[in-house]
Design a protein that fits this description.
The protein is built from twelve helices and seven strands. With 316 residues, the protein is α+β, with helices and mostly antiparallel strands. It folds into two domains: 116 residues, Alpha Horseshoe (Serine Threonine Protein Phosphatase 5, Tetratricopeptide repeat), CATH 1.25.40; 122 residues, Dynein light chain 2a, cytoplasmic (Beta-Lactamase), CATH 3.30.450.30. It has a five-stranded antiparallel sheet. Helix 2 packs parallel to helix 4 and helix 6 packs parallel to helix 8. The radius of gyration is 22 Å and the shape is globular.
């Protein structure tokens, strides 16, 4: 494993635009170096934001870190880029299973069965259906079926999702030693005071040239910040200027008969700015350097919107 990581690192150093970042990030993930793997994957996606496989690798890293929400976000992006992406469907099936939505997990896995190269989808699907049957056919010693758990294997090969039941044994692995079940990390967002609210989007962004700002309907800063090209914090000024933008966009869409607006992207001389309506009548703004790929800006907007929704749900 160490030799593989060293070789891939050398390859990427020689050619920073190489697609080997995906192999390197996944090798680091399997080696348990999750933070390094995360940085490699994010930097690679900066250059290649439209690769479904790259988003799949990033989702696996998030899953191994216990951040199932972000993992689900990345697998959703992978499916938008490639609707037939089997590993993304398998991953989302795992998320649905962990959330207790067995019917939805079965649907996702059944849809992925046509591209099941290593049998992992078939095994997961069988396990989900077994859990569904157990709901109506009690088989435990007390008349209650033991709950089954799908758990991602931090040190396994990409594309494999071992199945484990509540006793920790592997029902399809021929007696392999079980890996302890991963416990999701519940991210606690800051209380709504100005000093902490500024950090809400800190882990979403991946560079000093990126910024995110959440503005209420009156043009007041709710969370995040906005820094100009000179490094000055101009969040309050920008927020004031954006007061009413969401309402104007909504009226324009209604007047044109185009339905509800979902996002807006502006390419300016020095930056790319994306906006989206957010809960409670607020507006989310994400900005990045002009040379940033538009696809990456849209991805940052999606991530920031997910974070904004979670944060507002906690402080509202």
């Amino acid at each position: 494993m160490a030799d593989e990581i060293r070789r891939l690192s050398d390859d990427l150093a020689r050619d920073p635009s190489s697609l080997s970042f995906m192999q390197l990030a996944d090798a680091l993930r399997r080696a348990g170096q999750l933070e390094v793997a995360l940085r490699v994957a994010l930097r690679g996606l900066d250059r290649h934001p439209y690769l479904a496989d790259a988003h799949d690798v990033l989702a696996r890293i998030h899953a191994d870190r216990g951040d199932l929400e972000r993992a689900a976000d990345e697998w959703e992006v992978a499916l938008r880029l490639n609707p037939g992406h089997g590993p993304a469907r398998l991953g989302l099936g795992f998320i649905d299973f962990r959330r207790g939505n067995l019917e939805r997990a079965e649907q996702r896995l059944a849809a992925a069965s046509s591209v099941d190269e290593d049998g992992s989808v078939a095994a997961a699907l069988a396990h989900v259906r077994s859990a569904l049957d157990a709901r109506t056919a009690p088989n435990g010693p007390d008349g209650v079926a033991a709950p089954a758990v799908l758990a991602p294997e931090p040190s396994g090969q990409q594309g494999q999702t071992p199945l484990k039941n509540s006793t920790g044994s592997d029902p399809v692995g021929g007696g392999r030693a079980a890996t302890p079940m991963m416990t999701p990390t519940i991210v606690e967002y800051p209380a709504p005071d100005p000093s902490k609210a500024r950090q809400v989007f800190a882990s979403v962004l991946d560079g000093d040239d990126q910024t995110a700002l959440l503005v209420d309907a009156d043009g007041l800063v709710l969370a995040g910040g906005y820094t100009d090209s000179n490094g000055q914090d101009v969040a309050d000024v920008v927020a004031a200027e954006l007061a009413g933008v969401g309402g104007e966009a909504e009226r324009a869409m209604r007047h044109l008969g185009l339905g509800a607006w979902t996002s807006m992207l502006v390419e300016a001389d020095r930056s790319v700015v994306a906006m989206s309506p957010a809960p409670l009548g607020s507006l989310l703004v994400v900005a990045a350097a002009r040379e940033t790929p538009v696809g990456l800006v849209r991805l940052l907007l999606d991530r920031a919107l997910t974070r904004a929704r979670d944060w507002l749900a906690r402080v509202a």
